[in-house]
Amino acid sequence: MQTEPRIVERAEQPYAAITSRVTMQELGTKLPPLTGELFGWLGAHGAQQAGAPFWKYNVVDMERTLEVEVGVPLAAPVAGDGRVLADVLPAGRYAFSSHTGHPAELYHATGAMLDWAAEQGRAWDMADTPEGQRWAARLEFYNTDPQEEPDMNKWETDLVFRLAD
Known about the structure:
The chain is 19% helix and 39% strand. By secondary structure, it is of the alpha+beta class. Strands 1, 2, 3, 4, 5, 6, 7, 8, 9 and 10 form a 10-stranded antiparallel β-sheet that branches. Strand 3 and strand 4 (66-73) form a beta hairpin.
């Protein structure tokens, strides 16, 4: 089940992340272990989490690879090091939609979000590049802890995509 997209204003949000290049088929196996690595780093550096973990799709080329960040919003900025980068999600207008269901359904939920923007005549904050579509902020926030809710059909995810100014 997916909610109708709505537009929200978001303030800047510091975060920490690990970046990876993966194919669509590798998303479900290569990125989750990075979340554990990131949480370990946050704990070792005393960084305070300020929201649900997310995947940030920086470059999308469905035929080749995707550049994706496994990230966590933070209460205060930190300095990254090694594999962990520190950055800020940009402030601005975002399209927001919540999805309840299996993560495998997110491909279709994302398609519905893209269709909604086209129907509304809205543009995303993204540019076509030779690598693929480069997005300012295309996010999936994972609100459900798998240890607390093992039924993947009940998982809650927010899709949050930055709109062009």
